[in-house]
Amino acid sequence: MITLYGYAPAFGLPSASPFAIKTDLQLRMSGLPYVYGAGGTPQNAPKGKIPYIEDKGERIGDSTFIREHLESAYGIDLDAGLSAQQRASAWTIERLLEDHLYWALVHERWMDDANFEKGPAHFFNALPEAMRENVRQETRERVKATLHAQGLGRHTPAEIARLGARSLQALAQAIGEGPYLFGGKPSGSDATAFAFAVSLLTPFFEGPLQEAAAKLPVLKAYSERILQRYYPEMVQVAA
Ligand SMILES: N[C@@H](CCC(=O)N[C@@H](CS)C(=O)NCC(=O)O)C(=O)O
Q1: Where are the alpha helices (DSSP H) in the chain?
Q2: Do both 87 and 205 map to the same domain?
């Protein structure tokens, strides 16, 4: 049985991590049986990041490598029916979301004081009180340094918001009439698109990126469509 680590509801979302939401949805798309594992933290992960899975004693980190593993080990193709050009577009969309929009999301959640206090600051609640505040602030500083090294952190908040909004608009254009990214049938990159759409649409965090997402009805309709199809239990809870 496959065990998925790093997937735990937070901030009104299925998971705090869009990458964990992506992997969870790709597991649902694959139809393979799996369970959620307890204690999945970056510290325990093979690559120091969540999500990761354990399958028949093998631990695999990174959502893209997890997908590769599911497809090769179980003879699945989450992009079945897509042309070579569509597969290339799928990869391009995933890279836009995971390697660009993600960092704008991190900026909105970690660098905005109010969002940080109600969101990521709680990641450290389980630590002993004597060290909690230090680790919280050190981690926030580390995220700031990572944003600077990645490059987005060198821009002003308004510039970051502008770039992030362009990526969201590009995603909405790519979905277009839908119902899915590549027509009538969901494929692998819909998991990534869904993960980032819900992560930015949630009103839990406030800021220009959330506002930009909320202005794109295509994103909301698309997320709801995927929720209905793959997360009926959540739709029932919300109803
Ligand atoms: N390329 C990775 C990215 C995963 C990732 O960035 N995970 C974040 C949470 S959203 C994480 O674990 N960060 C912890 C850290 O950087 O220390 C994937 O696709 O799985």
Answers
A1: 18-30, 63-74, 84-96, 102-110, 113-118, 129-150, 157-175, 188-201, 208-214, 217-230, 232-238
A2: yes
Q: From the alpha carbon of 50, which atom of ligand 1 is closest?
A: 12
With a 6 Å cutoff on the Cβ, whether 63 touches ligand 1 is yes
Cα(15) to ligand 1 centroid in Å equals 12
User: Which of 78, 101, 120 is where one domain is finished?
Assistant: 78
Final residue before a domain boundary, out of 78, 109, 134: 78
- Atom number of ligand 1 nearest to Cα 18: 10
> 72 burial class (0-12, 13-18, 19+ CB within 10 angstroms)?
exposed
Could you report the per-residue pLDDT of 143-199, keeping only the tens digit for each?
999 999 999 999 999 999 999 999 999 999 999 999 999 999 999 999 999 999 999
Phi, psi of 55 (to 5 degrees): -140, 115
pLDDT tens digits for range 88-123: 999 999 999 999 999 999 999 999 999 999 999 999
Model-wide pTM > 0.90: yes
